[in-house]
Amino acid sequence: MKHYQEIIDLLPYKSPFHFVEELSHLDSEGCTGSYTIKEDEYFFEGHFPSHPVVPGVIITEIMAQIGLVCLGIYLLSDHSPNDPILPIFSNANVDFLAKAGPGNKLIVESKKIYFRFGKLKCKITCRLEHGTKVATGECSGMIVKKSQIE
Question: What CA–CA distance (Å, rounded) separates 18 from 61?
């Protein structure tokens, strides 16, 4: 199984806002990756401390980082570490179906709807490792190189 570490290394996010552990599949039509929710995630301090639940906005961000940004970097095949990718998130329409909490491994799968003129739109599904669907929806954004906007 290829892990696509070179794509993960090009992500512009840093801890505590980096939500991609592994990519297990990546091609021009979509990708699959995962992130395990840590027991000490910063958002659990205030999002129901006695009953921690991953906020929907974080689930959406995990879906976008894996399903949209990683795929966008891959589609920009001439990417370079010297010309960083800047994702500009433009839209999300996500339905939440189950909760996720500390220790849950989330599996995110995306299917490209279109990629043209730097805009990528995908159908993205997020599941718990054992299969329960947590969220599904469509996300889109612009995937640009930093040199294009300077």
Answer: 9
Residues in the chain: 150
Is the overall model pTM greater than 0.85, yes or no?
yes
The model's pLDDT over 31-46, given as tens digits with 9 standing for 90+, comes to 999 999 999 999 999 9
Cis peptide before 87 (omega within 30 of 0): no
- Return the minimum-mean-pLDDT range out of 45-49, 119-123, 138-142: 45-49
Active site residue 47: yes
Name 14's Cβ contacts closer than 8 Å, sequence gap at least 6: none
The helix or strand, by DSSP H or E, that contains position 14, with its residue range, turns out to be: none
Express the helix, strand and coil content of the chain in percent, nearest 5 each: 20, 40, 35
Catalytic annotation, pick one of 25, 47, 51, 79: 47
Strand ranges, E, within 56-104: 85-96
